[in-house]
Design goal:
This protein has 113 residues and is of the alpha+beta class. The chain has four helices and three strands; from the N terminus they run αβααββα. The protein has a three-stranded antiparallel sheet. A hairpin with a 6-residue loop joins strand 2 and strand 3.
Length: 113
Amino acid sequence: MDVNEAVSGLMQELRRGTLIMLALSELRTPMYGYDLVKRLEKAGVNMEANTLYPLMRRLEGQGLLESRWETGGSKPRKYYQLTPEGAFVLEKIKDYWKDFSHRISALLEEEKQ
């Protein structure tokens, strides 16, 4: 296996879970998909639409997001928002992330010494 391929694959695995957490976090207020993509890009986190929309459908299917169509503007848009269950899951994931990333950082710092 090519080393660059291995690095790319591993980085993609790391991104998957964090993108879920970020999407849930951003959708505490209603937002349509393109707006979410732009907000994440502005923060330096790139997510393509072909990654975002299947993720949104999956999270909605799990009951973590709800959606509604807004038809009052120039074109219809589907807005997504966190459900109460999604908010609970987000808090648990954030707590885990903070603890886990702190432990990982400590281990990686030890490695340098």
